[in-house]
Amino acid sequence: MTVRTAELLMGLALAILSAYFMWKSAELPIMWVPEVGPGGGSWPFWLSAAMFGSCIWILINWVRRIGPVANNEEPFFEPGLFAPVAYVAGALLICVALIEGIGVGGFKGIGFYGSLPLFLIFYIRFMGKHSWVATIAAAITIPVVTFLFFELMLNITLPKGMTEPLFLKIFALYYGL
Amino acid sequence: MFEILGLLVQGFGVALQPFNLMLIILGCGVGLFIGAMPGLGSVNGVAILLPLTFLVPPDGAIIFLAAIYYGAMYGGAVSSILLGIPGASTAVATTFDGRPLAKQGLADKALTTAALASFVGGTISVILFTFFAPPLAHVALTFGAPEEFSLMMLAFATFVGLGGDDIAKTIFSICIGLVLAAVGLDIMSGAPRLIFGDLPGFMHGINFLVLAIGIYGIGEMLWTVEENARAGGKSMLSEANMTWERTKKNVSEFTGTWKITSLSSVLGYFVGILPAAGATPGSLMAYGIAKQMVKNPEKFGKGAIEGVAAPEAANNAASTGSMLPMLTLGIPGSPTTAILLGGMVIWGLEPGPRLFSSNPDFVWGLIASLYAANVFALILNVLLIPAFIWVLKLPFTILAPIILTLCLVGGYAPTQDMHDLWLMLVFGIVGYLLRKLDYPVAPAVLAIVLGPLAEPSLRQSLLISGGDPMIFFNRPYSGPIMVVALILLFMPAFFMAYRLIRGGRPGNATSGV
To answer: How confident is the model at residue B236 (pLDDT cuts 50, 70, 90)?
Structure first.
């Protein structure tokens, strides 16, 4: 896929998104409501309309080959550069999906502290090709530091899924001291 | 005058409390490291670390973030010089002469010059800031809803008129940011609005941090992953050789650039005040002007210390300049200050001119902390150079997962809702793809912060006038602001028409006004 093709596809996708935003905003009044002023949907509706308009403008520029992106026939991803980006993006998506599950089959997720080490092992060992010793050290240290810093120091509780009971004991110990 | 000095002394009383002082030093250190990492700048640092500050009092929180902002502006030069990769877009101009100096084995000279110039730029601009802010806030106190809306129009119009990006894409970026800010409940009727796919997670609206961390955390990391893969993961680190004797010589050489450094500082400060401009164009302009001013401009690009001093002084001055409209008008001057502004709302402060009268401790504490942050950033910058070199030697594949971990926690913390974590990933991936196609992303972040302020001011103004838009034009302050905004908004169209009349190709007008 060339940059030029990607520009077209993105322009079309954003135009559809804008149209969806317009339709969704129109659930509330979009024009002047007597005694109330502008309706609740007017602000997002007319802005979405402007989004739609700018998408049309982008597409016209594409057809008329105006601007550097619309003329760029180079590949959107240079050879060998798509895979690393896709791996990282995919690993992040899987990592988040594992935290609380996505509502399939009653799977409650392995929590932040279950999925983060898996993500770290994938990244450091398979993307970075570091030794297993370094990988395991990082996969243990980073979640432990995160836990100490965020949960104990800053009281920000991260989702724990099915690992919850384990942490109740740690908290009981910590707050019992 | 004496009143201002009195308030400033009071501010130092806040800034120099042991806890706040510790936050300044910590913030400068963290900022320096974030700035020094290739690809990460002040905006990334502030976006990723803002959720950490919810548990300290607001004045401590903003002092910490402002110190990160400053530290990152100092640190940006480090990777520009040692790696030849700008630490952030604001440090692009520093690579032009900083990198050649490093290649000649004079990395220490470039680093010392950058640190000192940053200090001069920061200090001059804070002094300007101290004396400009109170009068501006005083005028701004008379502002009502129409003036507020006109100011926001001006902020968005500067992106269209002066941003230099594709106009259609800039408008798209602004509008999508404003629409995303409108998700949740309609502020007047309380009716649910834009609940996409009827997902309950949209009911509480979209927190600006979800977008900011998505774009500047996740999106930026994906971008850097690609850059890193292109470079084959190789590091081109230059060694810096620092001794006492060499440092003394470097400092005395730097003092020879005082004229260029101080001029760049003043220039950077005023460019920084403009919403769309900020530190990147400020530093590039300063570089260009410095080249005009020196006796031997042919040395530029080959390792002239003026070429390091000018952009570094300007980018630090601009970062202070961009805080002026944030504090006095409630309009951020840069993406970083947009995030700071969003933070102030979370901390329960109302940004805008009333801050000066309602929370003087907060405002003057912040201003005083900028003076202190400058001093500590300079000291830490010089002391930590060996540590930077060590961190820059760490492979990217170790740094990246650590930063991504911070992004995940940062995206979850503000609302504690998994829905937002998903949204952040979507914003990050889409933001990365948009950036590859030259869509500017900064206007969207600015818009999602300003959206919740812009919509009520528009609706209130129209209610006052009974639906007549002339209310924006026939008030003493609102009128001129709105006229300037409209001129900026239509400036690219004028240029296009002008070129068409002269028979030029229309294609040039849309890409680089």
So the answer is: low
pLDDT of residue B233: 63
CB-nearest partner of A146 from B218, B405, B459:
B405
Q: Is the dihedral of CA B368, B371, B373, B379 positive or negative?
A: negative
Q: Is B401 on the interface with A (CB under 8 A)?
A: yes
Give me the percent of chain B exceeding a pLDDT of 70: 95
Whether B467 contacts B474, CB under 8 Å: no
* B426 touching chain A per CB within 8 A: no
Q: For residue A120, which residues of chain B lie inside 8 Å, CB to CB? A: 401, 405
The answer to whether B275 touches B259, Cβ cutoff 8 Å, is: no
> Domain ranges in chain A?
3-71, 82-176
User: Is B171 in contact with A25 (Cβ distance < 8 A)?
Assistant: no
The nearest alpha carbon in chain B to A71 belongs to: B507
Can you give B315-350 as a three-state secondary structure string?
A: HHHHHHHCHHHHHHHCCCCCHHHHHHHHHHHHCCCC
Rounded Cα distance, B424 and B78, in Å: 30
* Cβ-defined contact of B194 to A44 (cutoff 8 Å): yes
Give the number of beta-carbon pairs within 8 Å between A and B: 183
Residue type, B394: L
Give B492 to chain A, closest Cα distance, Å.
14
CA–CA distances in Å: residue A25 to residues A39, A40, A44: 10, 8, 6
Sequence-separated (6 or more) residues with CB below 8 Å from residue A119: A91, A92, A94, A95, B401, B404
- pLDDT tens-digit map of B435-469: 999 998 888 988 888 888 889 889 889 988 888 88
Q: Worst-scoring range by mean pLDDT, A121-135, B112-126, B321-335?
A: B321-335
DSSP secondary structure string for all residues of B146-173: HHHHHHHHHHHHHHHHHS-S-HHHHHHH
Angle between helices B2-15 and B360-383 (to 10 degrees): 60
Q: Which residues pair with B184 in a beta bridge?
A: B193
Minimum Cα–Cα distance from A111: chain B residue: B418
Q: What's the rounded mean pLDDT across residues A1-7? A: 93
Please tell me the predicted confidence (pLDDT) of residue B513. 32
Shortest alpha-carbon distance between residue B311 and chain A (Å): 28
The type of residue at B397 is T
**Residue from A7, A72, A92, A113 to probe the interface with B (highest B Cβ count within 10 Å):** A92
Alpha carbon of B150: minimum distance to chain A alpha carbons (Å): 16
Between helix B360-383 and helix B107-140 the angle, nearest 10°, is: 170
Interface mutation vs chain B, best among A47, A71, A129, most B CBs within 10 Å: A47
Q: Does B437 touch chain A (CB under 8 A)?
A: yes
Residue B28, both tokens: 């400068």
Provide the ipTM: 0.94
Residues of B in Cβ contact (< 8 Å) with A58: 166, 168-169, 172
CB A135 within 8 A of CB A125: yes
Average pLDDT on B415-442 reads: 92
Measuring CA to CA, which residue among A11, A124, A60 is closest to residue B405? A124
Query: Is B436 close to A6, i.e. CB distance below 8 A?
Result: yes
Concatenated DSSP letters of B345-397: HHTT---STHHHHH-HHHHHHHHHHHHHHHHHHHHHHHHTHHHHHHHHHS-HH
